[in-house]
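HUMAN: Mind sharing a backbone?

ASSISTANT:
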Amino acid sequence: MNTLVRENRNASQQRSEQFVTPAASVSGIYLGHPDARYFSVGRIGRDQVEDYAARKGGSTAEAERWLRPNLAYEPADDDEARVSIASASSGL
């Protein structure tokens, strides 16, 4: 550890006898109540992703890439989307 600290003197971390600062942790106070009702946020629909992309000035595909774990649908891959667009325009 001492070798690493000496080699990284310009780093923004400092070592003491017991702690390394800044701490790489998250802390909080979590309180519960027997009458509390907990909920989770639902999955994001295609219309919400399109609206978000329009407000951010980006593409729907980019928004889908960032939001993929929270999507309520399976986004089309770029290759599949191009094939379906080509098929629709050719009347197939």
